[in-house]
Amino acid sequence: ANCFLLLRDVCEAVYWYRMAERLIPNDGQTRANLRFARSQTRVKFPPPPASELVHTLFFFHYLIPLPIRTNLFVISWNLFWILATLALFFPPLQRPWLLLASCFLCLILGTSSGLDLYRDKVTAEGVIIQDDVTARKGAALTYDPVFTEPLSPGVEVEILQERSPYTEVRFTNKVSGWIPSSSLRLIKGDGSNLSP
Q1: Which residues is 186 bridged to in the sheet?
Q2: Count of C-beta atoms within a 10 Å radius of residue 154
Q3: Considering Cα of 196, then 190, then 43, then 9, what sign does the dihedral take?
Q4: Does residue 191 register a pLDDT over 70?
Q5: Could you tell me the CA-to-CA distances from 77 to 19, 68, 83, 110 in Å, in that order?
């Protein structure tokens, strides 16, 4: 990714930084480089304001990597049952606020980890790899364009469905459109497509 960024190939840089981000979660240098590569794309889609509010309220979901959140969930789950057992057998040691706190942590961390695991299984993502791609309102050239200007390489999308030779995608601003399938490269987090 660094080589492609130095060569000013933004599309390949974004793609390979996204791959690195999936394979090495929570690496600060990768995040910083990806942020810079994204800033180099010609066409940018700002996230909706609600997205920024969610990121602020649930900061731990976005800052703490999934493996650490999962481990914290397991620890808080075990702590909850240990405290519940102690409260049952040793009533003088009852600390209801500890029990409630560990239950709250279980709920928050379990939900956060579960959402990430579900999203990784269900959501497919990709990067536009061709220049001047027109997103359309339907799966044919006869449909009107979604945006006034064509898309540039390096724009990231969520894949909704495919109707050959077109794919319906959602952009980071939550607007969806259809683009040619050949203009898209899938991001896979399992390392199965590590060749360009």
Answers
A1: 126
A2: 22
A3: negative
A4: no
A5: 32, 14, 10, 9
**Cα dihedral sign, 64-45-38-187:** positive
CA distances from 25 to 42, 67, 68, 118, 142 (A): 26, 9, 10, 17, 41
The alpha carbon dihedral of 50, 55, 56, 61 has a sign of positive
- Report DSSP letters for 109-174, one per residue: HHHHHHHHHHHHHH-EEEEE-SSSBPPBSSSSTTSPBSSSS-B-TT-EEEEEEEETTEEEEEETTS
pLDDT at position 195: 44
Q: Is the pLDDT of residue 151 over 70?
A: yes
Amino acid at residue number 141: L
Please tell me the distance from the alpha carbon of residue 147 to that of residue 66, in angstroms, as a whole number.
Answer: 35
20-39 confidence digits (pLDDT tens): 888 887 788 998 999 899 99
Query: How far is Cα 47 from Cα 135, in angstroms, rounded to an integer?
Result: 18
pTM of the model: 0.71
More confident residue, 189 or 76: 76
Task: At 9, list the tokens.
Answer: 């190939």
Report d(CA 30, CA 32) in Å as an integer. Answer: 5
